[in-house]
Amino acid sequence: MSTLTDPQRAARTRGLNRYHLREYLNAESDLTIAATAGDRDSQYALGEIFRRREGNSTGTAKHWYQLAGAQDHVYSLLRLGDADSREKARELAQAAIDAGDASALLQMYELTQDMAWLNKAAVANNAEAIYIQALLYEKNPALRPPNARWESLLDVILRKAANAGFPPAMYWLSNRAGMYRNIPYQQYWLNKRLEHNDLNAVLNYSYALLHLFDTEQNLDRYNFNYDPIKGYGLLWLVVANTREYIRHREAAGVLETVTSELTPDQISAGKAFAQEWQDTHPPLSAYPLTYSDLR
């Protein structure tokens, strides 16, 4: 990053923020600026965008993976997948592990698909690794520890990932059976997700503030006081910053209805609150997994 100019660095920030929102079309132009200037994280992100778009790693995606891989980006080397790239990735990951980098344990798992490496990453409190562990155990019972009581084990794993600061784990945990109507519990985990400016949490919070409850069961999961200004502001923030979000059309429709019910002063106050929220929180993010395509 030190070699980037200020405009290139700004493009990098915008592009990666949009990429982490899964706003791939909107991220592409800024990422291209930073990637062309040599930023390897932007190169990897562009590779991921084109891999998803083209359905493979051999077209445009390969070009960006090669550039990032030449700068020792381990996940790009894994996407390239040839023997030399994989060997280089192994050497880089092992060197990072030897230097005490816990994130490299997850890289080694993605390289080898050996659960022992994933378990080591989880023991090192890598939140993403712990969450991936839960996903894998959920999908394939044969991977679970022998004689484990699955529901209890899943709670333990999700709590560990949530306490390590991974919003998708917090979301999964809050939706576990038996806890949906536990309002203090729901409030706690929603607030934790809001600290990380998790996209889905911000939308849910805006609905809760607007008293737009579960339409099927008319349930209020959170019991927040009605606040149309803050609710409008956060709803506007979500709609203004997303296009590819799976709930964007729904949110845009709700925003149109809410806007029609507010005064111009309330709308202005809501947008001012949204700006204040942006200034005091991390960038809005959907928290995609770094490499894995698990869901």
Structure description:
This is Sel1 repeat family protein. It comes from Pseudomonas fungipugnans. By secondary structure, this protein is mostly helical. 67% of the residues lie in helices and 0% in strands. The chain has 16 helices and no strands. α1 runs antiparallel to α2.
Task: Please write the string of helix (H) and strand (E) elements.
Answer: HHHHHHHHHHHHHHHH
* Tally of helical runs: 16
Number of strands: 0
What structural class do helix, strand and pairing data support? mainly alpha
Write down the overall geometry.
globular
Distance between the termini: 31 Å
Radius of gyration, in Å, reads 21 Å
Mean of residue pLDDT? 95
Helix content: 55-70%
Strand content: under 5%
> What does the main sheet amount to?
none
Low-pLDDT segments, ≥5 res:
none
InterPro entries: TPR-like_helical_dom_sf
Organism: Pseudomonas fungipugnans
Protein name: Sel1 repeat family protein
